[in-house]
Amino acid sequence: MHRVSLYWIVGLLILTGLSLAWLRHNQMQIPFKPGSDTGVWLIEARVSFTASQRPVLASLSIPKMPPGFRIFNEQAASPGYGFSIVGQEENRRAEWSRRTAEGSQTLYYKIQLTRHPEKTGKLHDPPASPDTVYWQPPEATAALAIIETAGATSSTPESLTREIIKILTTSEKEQNAALLLTEYRQEILLTRLLAEAGIPSRVVQGIFLEDGRRNQSLVPMVEVFTGNQWILFNPVTGQQGVPENFLVWHRGGPSLLDLSGGSSARVSFSMIFQSIPALEMARIQSSSNGFSFLSMHHLPLDQQGIFKLLLLIPMGALVVTFMRIIIGVRTSGTFMPVLIGMAFLQTSLVPGLIYFLAIVGTGLLLRSYLSYLNLLLVARIATIVIIVITLITLASLMAIRLGFHTGMPVTAFPLIIIAWTIERMSILWEEEGMREVMVQGTGSLVVALCAYAFMRQPIIAHLSFNFPELNLIIAALILLLGQYTGYRLFELHRFAAMKDRTP
Question: If I label 404, which of 103, 188, 228, 457 is the partner at 20 to 30 A Cα–Cα?
């Protein structure tokens, strides 16, 4: 029963860790691999107009949840103007305002987007029935004729839309289509005809993304409600669905650009494709995500540096647990090798080894002298702590004087742990001899080097800091290792001679 409960806990820890990591990867776009890049479209809307010495208010429609894309950053560049984004519904608007302005004015709005295939942007709420369409008498006759012709060869809103587009775009247009196209733009005419047929539709404006394009205008499309979703149609080609690299910028409703206090308003678009580190993008958008409570990127930079080291300790603890339980390596102190391995991360390996051996060796010599003084344990440990601090200080000063810039990081060594290590090794030397001290000292260094080798791997440092929930999986593995009751690897070697003598 006890073992079953343990397995349930282990399974729960692994499932929770993996689920949280996967959700944060999907929602916050945090990469599982360090150094991976993400393609980003940077689109700039340039609004230009001539101000007429009056209060100016410019309002530009901007995208919200465009299908196939995810917005992760937006900003405006408009010196002298107040700027805000208003409207939380489907049609958001960027508004610039100024008490007075004169002459040529230019406003910029920039948005960064990434591809996101799961974001379809389909709206399932049924719209209101189309308003009554008013035609001139000849136009009404032509419109009805087109709808009857298209309706004869269609059975659904989608097929009716395609048939009407065919009639309007054929090279040899019939008289009815030619008559209506002289009065209405093609996308407007299509929405009027669909409304006449009782099908909700609206004009959509978007832009085809192409790297390095400048001074582009929006391309009109038509969205048709087919009963449970909106489907995009190209009114020129009849293509159904959102084309690749087509960004829906504005849907129906108010106009694309409204301006008061000026004239000759114009909006144009430029775009470039960028590759930015995926981790940098995750930092930018982490503040607006519900899973950001697990993100370390909100902490001050100095605290982030501390947590980068702290979150490596579980991996070091796993290495120590494996080396002691499965391999059978004896160490001086249970988790002292983990702290030594972390110190190596800051000092680098070779200087760290030299410092560690020098400090522990010198400390053992001085500790042997303290044995003759018959001090109480607390006083002896306190003296060793002061000796260790003095040795580290001297080592740092000497290293700096000699021009070794790794001198200061030697303070990363756990002072109290090293002091206790010196004390325990000294007692071990007195009770069991130098050989046992060498065995445990060497074992501690070997385990520390193994922990260091794992913790210095970029993939482990990346995962531990950006996905701290993965430590739940490490905890589960340690729980499983804690159930091991078999022989250790070194014990198999020790008892090999008995096996050879077995008849």
Answer: 457
The encoded tokens of residue 247 equal 């960004």
Lookup: tokens for 159: 């097929």
462 vs 454: CA distance, rounded Å: 12
Query: Within 10 Å of residue 486's Cβ, how many Cβ atoms?
Result: 8
For 354, phi then psi, to 5°, come to: -60, -45
Residue type, 481: L
Under DSSP, is residue 237 helix (H, G, I), strand (E, B) or coil? Answer: coil
pLDDT, tens digit (0-9, with 9 covering 90-100), for 166-188: 888 887 767 888 888 888 888 88
Q: pLDDT averaged over the chain?
A: 81
Tell the residue number behind the tokens 């500790």, with chain if given: 367
Which residues have a Cβ under 8 Å from the Cβ of 120 and sit 6 or more positions away? 67, 68
Among residues 111, 2, 13, the alpha carbon closest in space to that of 63 is found at 111
Q: Which helix (H) or strand (E) holds 258?
A: strand 257-260
- For residue 320, the tally of other CB atoms under 10 A from its CB is 25
**Rounded (10°) angle between helices 434-455 and 313-322:** 130
The first and second tokens of residue 306, run together, are 């501390």
CB atoms within 10 A of CB 224: 22
Residues of the chain with pLDDT under 70: 1-2, 35-37, 88-90, 117-126, 173, 253-254, 275-294, 297-302, 402-416, 493-503
Residue partners of 168: CB distance under 8 A and separation at least 6 = 146, 177, 181, 186, 189, 190, 235
Residue 222 main-chain phi, psi, to 5 deg? -130, 130
The CB-based long-range contact list for 388-397 (8 Å cut-off, 24+ gap) reads 388/359, 388/363, 388/415, 388/418, 388/419, 388/422, 389/415, 391/358, 391/359, 391/362, 391/363, 392/355, 392/359, 395/355, 395/358, 395/359
What is the model's pLDDT at position 274?
A: 73
Tell me, yes or no, if the pTM score tops 0.90: no
Strand order of the β-sheet with 219-225 is 230-233, 219-225, 201-208, 246-251
Closest by CA to 159, choosing from 167, 334, 399, is 167
Q: What are phi and psi of 231, to 5 degrees?
A: -120, 135
Contacts for 166 with CB less than 8 Å, ≥ 6 apart: 150, 238
If residue 264 lies in a helix (H) or strand (E), which one and from where to where?
A: strand 262-277
CA dist 167 and 222 (Å) reads 16
Enter the tokens of residue 246.
């087509």
Angle at 51 between CA 50 and CA 55, to 5 degrees: 155
Instruction: Specify the DSSP element, H or E, that contains 222.
Output: strand 219-225
Work out the burial of residue 86: count CB atoms within 10 Å of its CB; fewer than 13 is exposed, 13-18 middle, 19 or more buried: exposed
Three-class DSSP category at 17: helix
CA–CA distance, 368 with 381 (Å, rounded to integer): 13
